[in-house]
Amino acid sequence: SQTIHQWPATLVQPVGSPLSLECTVEGTSNPNLYWYRQAAGRGLQLLFYSVGIGQISSEVPQNLSASRPQDRQFILSSKKLLLSDSGFYLCAWSPLTYYNEQFFGPGTRLTVL
Amino acid sequence: KNEVEQSPQNLTAQEGEFITINCSYSVGISALHWLQQHPGGGIVSLFMLSSGKKKHGRLIATINIQEKHSSLHITASHPRDSAVYICAVGRGGGADGLTFGKGTHLIIQP
To answer: Phi and psi (nearest 5°) for A6?
Structure first.
């Protein structure tokens, strides 16, 4: 069966510090991968998606970047965190050709102070 | 105007009540999702539907494609149903993710 992992589960970082959140998927090949963010008081918003290794599409201009160094690994990064980067970050995957079916990771709660 | 609108934003009810949460969307979709988010933040997918009606236990989801509207019903509600319920749509144009409503915060009191 397929499993999606995210770490860390919670993170408190100072403004201006770097960020690296990791997501890995097990039990499937060639998944589509997604990063979503839920800011306080707002709905989930798509940040990045990837249909293959090295292929990243960005939905919202921001202080963040994403990379997909391996088929089942998706990384969200920032060089310098802003207060507005605080939120709940969710990784998700969907089957290669049935992208409407999405499976969500446990999430990372990031607080920038 | 958001592409996906949910109502109500907050709902408090007594145990045993019949609950209805509504979702309206303004774009063409290939599928609509109902998700449940508990206080810890984790999200569970309840339903994915593109037409008609689905039922799982005490949960029922319906969608009317012509009216661009979906409802999530909970029968015989229980305090453990307390959570945020989120409607999300997939546009179907490609693997470009879901568009989410802001969620309905449901509290079921014993």
So the answer is: -135, 145
